């Protein structure tokens, strides 16, 4: 039976998540999740240790199940994609054993994920555009500055959305409270008149 272990990684916007390594037991799945902004370049490099009778499948998906990268019997390789929207992206390694042995060594998985400024290959950019080292550093700082501005704009937008939501919720609570108070007053008034009429009919009061 395939078991699934999900490891939640911190949300890092400006720098990549860096290299990580973990052991993958046979007939199991481990998934790494991360929230990433829209229009961000994401690159990954992985390596899985080989074990006899075990194959490992790799799949990269977004929160709605779109497959961004998939490879069966993945041992070593790279992947890259650009995010379409701000959401949670997931990298899953699934180990499948064909030996059926109860004692099977775990596989060592090494994964290095980068996104944003860290994912760009500035060496290749420098060769393509014939940039000097100082110009490459300035380009990197420019990209980093744009990334910071983009993050602040996103946080400001989220703050405005949350503020609008809080204000809308407060108004709805006020309207509901006013309506509830009106219903209680109307019900209490009706009860007073009804009881007064009932007591008069029983000649308990004049």
Topology at a glance:
Blueprint lengths: L2 E6 L9 E7 L3 E9 L4 E8 L5 E8 L5 E5 L4 E7 L4 E11 L9 E9 L6 H8 L3 H69 L5
Parallel strand pairs: 1-3
Antiparallel strand pairs: 2-9, 3-8, 4-7, 4-9, 5-6, 5-8
Keywords:
alpha+beta, 4-stranded antiparallel β-sheet, Jelly Rolls, 34% strand, 206 residues
Q: Spans of 5+ residues with little confidence (pLDDT < 50)?
A: 1-17
Give me the Rg, rounded: 30 Å
- Give the assembly state of these chains: single chain
Can you tell me the CATH superfamily of one domain? GOLD domain
- The proportion of residues in beta strands is 25-35%
Number of strands: 9
Residues in helices, as a percent range: 25-40%
Please explain how this structure is put together:
This is GOLD domain-containing protein. InterPro entries: Emp24-like, GOLD_dom. The chain is of the alpha+beta class and about 210 residues long. It has a domain at about 5-120: GOLD domain (Jelly Rolls), CATH 2.60.120.680. The chain contains 2 helices and 9 strands, in the order βββββββββαα. Helix 1 (about 120-130) crosses helix 2 (about 135-200). It is elongated and about 100 Å long. The termini are far apart. The model is unreliable at about 1-15 (pLDDT under 50).
Concise synopsis of the structure shown:
Strand 5 and strand 6 (67-71) form a beta hairpin. The protein is an alpha+beta fold and 206 residues long.
């Amino acid at each position: 039976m395939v078991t699934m272990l999900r490891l939640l990684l911190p949300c890092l916007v400006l720098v990549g998540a860096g290299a990580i390594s973990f052991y993958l037991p046979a007939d199991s799945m481990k998934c790494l999740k991360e929230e990433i902004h829209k229009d961000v370049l994401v690159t990954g490099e992985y390596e899985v240790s080989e074990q006899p009778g075990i194959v490992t499948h790799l799949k990269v998906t977004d929160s709605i199940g779109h497959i961004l990268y998939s490879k069966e019997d993945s041992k070593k390789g790279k992947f890259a994609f650009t995010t379409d929207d701000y959401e949670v992206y997931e990298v899953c390694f699934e180990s499948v054993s064909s030996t059926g042995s109860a004692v099977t060594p775990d596989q060592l998985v090494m994964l290095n994920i980068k996104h944003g400024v860290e994912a760009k290959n500035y060496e290749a950019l420098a060769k393509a555009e014939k940039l000097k080292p100082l110009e490459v550093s300035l380009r990197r700082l420019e990209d980093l500055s744009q990334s910071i501005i983009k993050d602040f704009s996103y946080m400001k937008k989220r703050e405005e959305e949350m503020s609008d939501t809080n204000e809308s919720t407060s108004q709805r609570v006020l309207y509901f409270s006013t309506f509830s108070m009106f219903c209680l007053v109307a019900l209490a008034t009706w009860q007073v008149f009804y009881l007064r009429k009932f007591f008069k009919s029983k000649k308990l009061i004049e």
